[in-house]
Design goal:
Elements (H helix, E strand, L loop, with lengths): L2 H13 L3 E2 H8 L3 H14 L5 E6 L2 E6 L4 H13 L3 H14 L4 H8 L4 H9 L3 E6 L2 E9 L1 H7 L10 H35 L1
Antiparallel strand pairs: 1-3, 2-3, 4-5
Length: about 200
């Protein structure tokens, strides 16, 4: 396996969701033809393994092989009867009070990667993934009708203290942005001081 194939495999694993070949070409600064050729080689090398390359139109992702479907189904059922856990509840709350939003935004708010948590919530039918209307290369996550039904709500705004919680999260995000702006100003000032010295 050459270096590009290894890197493609790593990015697809890390991404955990479909990604356009065009986007991969941008990431690796290669042509779409070069990416497609390496994906074909990666696909061949994944034969007889537990992971397969899944294609849909011009997007690709990694998935589990057909041979492991029984095992994965068993594990999925076990996962569904377990509690959501703190990370799951945290992510679900963010989506309920801030959704629809992208995985990157969820990661930013939580401060950690949320790929596996989001997958778990989708398997349980609590959140769904929709195409981002502002960026066709990414997805947004939002609560499902099943979640609203489970919570006994007719609309998401009926969540306890919805407006207040939304306002507090916005306040937190604005303070984070302000801190980043202040950090940038401090760095610029330090760089200018060093240049003057």
């Amino acid at each position: 396996m050459n270096n590009l194939e290894k890197q493609l495999e790593a990015v697809l694993f890390w991404k955990g969701e479909p990604i356009a070949i065009k986007k991969l070409a941008q990431i690796f600064n290669k042509s779409e033809e070069e990416i497609s050729t390496s994906l074909i080689e990666l696909e061949k090398k994944l034969l007889d393994r537990g992971i397969v390359l899944v294609r849909k139109e011009n997007e690709v992702t990694l998935g589990t092989s057909k041979d492991t479907s029984e095992l994965i189904e068993k594990l999925t059922k076990e996962e569904l009867v377990r509690d959501l856990g703190r990370a799951g509840l945290e992510t679900l709350s963010i989506i309920i009070y801030q959704g629809p939003l992208s995985r990157a935004e969820i990661d930013y708010i939580r401060g950690v990667q949320s790929t596996f948590i989001l997958r778990n919530l989708m398997i349980r039918g609590l959140v769904e993934k929709i195409q981002n209307p502002k960026d066709q290369r990414s997805f947004l996550y939002k609560p499902t009708f099943e979640l609203l039904s489970y919570l006994g709500l007719s609309k998401i705004e009926e969540m306890p203290e919805f407006a207040k919680a939304k306002e507090e999260i916005e306040g937190f995000k604005n303070s984070q942005r302000q801190e980043e702006v202040e950090d940038d100003k401090t760095k610029d000032s330090e760089e200018k001081t060093v240049e003057q010295i």
